[in-house]
Amino acid sequence: MLGAAGASLAHLAGCGGGSGGDGGMGNASSAMPAAPPRVEPAAASSTAPSLPIIALDPGVLDADGVRNFALAVQRGSTQFRTGINTDTLGYNGALLGPALRLRAGEKTSIRVQNHLAEETTVHWHGLVVPAEMDGGPHQIIVPGAQWQASFTVDNPASTCWFHPHVHGSTGRLVVMGLAGLLIVEDPAAAGSGLPSTWGVDDLALVLQDKRFTTAGQIDYVLSSGDRVNGYVGDTLLVNGAIGPVWQAPRQWVRLRLLNGCNARFLTLRLGSGAEMMQVANEAGLLAAPVTRQSITLAPGERAEVLVDFSRAADGQDVSLLAATVSGGMGMGGMGMGGSAGPPEVAAMGFRASLPRQPGAILQPPGTLASVPAVAASAGATVRSFSLGGGMMSSQFTINGRAFDMGRIDLAVPASTVEIWRFTNATGMAHPMHVHGVRMSLLARDGVLPPAYECGLRDTFTVEPMQTVTVAVETPAQASPTPLMFHCHILEHEDAGMMGQFITV
Fold first, then answer.
1. Are 343 and 396 members of one domain?
2. What's the pLDDT score for residue 16?
3. What is the CATH number of the domain that holds 238?
4. Residues 311-332 pLDDT 10s
């Protein structure tokens, strides 16, 4: 039964209404065992590459009304710097993957062929799918084999993504290049008034960091600092390019932002000082746009923002600046340069060089086609999770236990709403991700979350010594196949900061 404090949380009807103009989400300050490597600044504009535009794959609709996609997991070679060929991994190419265009309510089938010489999986991060189709560590695809994921898209309009989820190897496989996007379109949000012409006024930006050896190869030899804080690179990339530039039309543009780093938290802002208008978090549209000066994304988190380039002078360059730290710093430690925090670098540039395009959005909507947040009743079951604690050698645990593929940590009733409380017992922030559920934030240390954290979520940060309470709507169908909940600092996940649950 719910105690008095829990009952008050269960009756929360909505989130806070603050504008959330700051970049952070928590109030705790975090301590790092060691300073992370500095990130290499973007290339000078005269030599900067053009931003690679992620290909939008519409799939093929068959006679049975099923939309079909095919993914090949393969090795490749990429030139991050001129004249240096770097071994990489990709989906349907040498690096990263396409953006699969999904439709809410539509039957979908994704065929995955593993051309690697090692096992892999493909997890649909953010999608609410049956457990056996989730692509977690139990859905292994051996070398040369094929796996078919078939499901009906049960998400609202949102920006999700896909990546490997092999226990113990996830961090390395993602750094090597395995990441792609899932763009969910929903007829209910079709009239939202948001920019929607892919690559013209609707732009996906995958931000990642890497380290390179002197021979120009990706360096994934984990240092002692990497094992504690997660892997951090010294070079920031956007869509697989170092310091690229995008020729922007002088109009409102929608940016779909993904923090695809293994461990770095990214605080993003525009170098011109212009505001960004956040319209969505990772699991769907907000109730109304929220004006932000900067946005902080934890590893695995996404946000959608609108930027007005019509106010830029013709040919004006506007940088997307990133203040970056490794995972241990978390949200509360994200200062914006100077002695108060880590230095900023230019992740990429926007050059306002193109005229307004046909069909341009002239004025952003005042309200959005958001979906209701998950709400819990006063009688909802409450579950508590303690993140880490103890000696350094065993700190990556949940409720004192490291992940065990053979152990089921929870059996939860299907199609119900529970309250889950995550308390961080460590000195570093942990972004938590729960597979296959709908969930919404209720409170941080008993305080309503701000407007930009409202709605549906799939990943959220728990600051050091903080308790975050979420309402979790469990899967609709019972299944003996486990779903995961884990820290999305990938080295923490690989080290065992993960649990699994089934529905009954």
1. no
2. 62
3. 2.60.40.420
4. 888 889 999 999 976 555 544 4
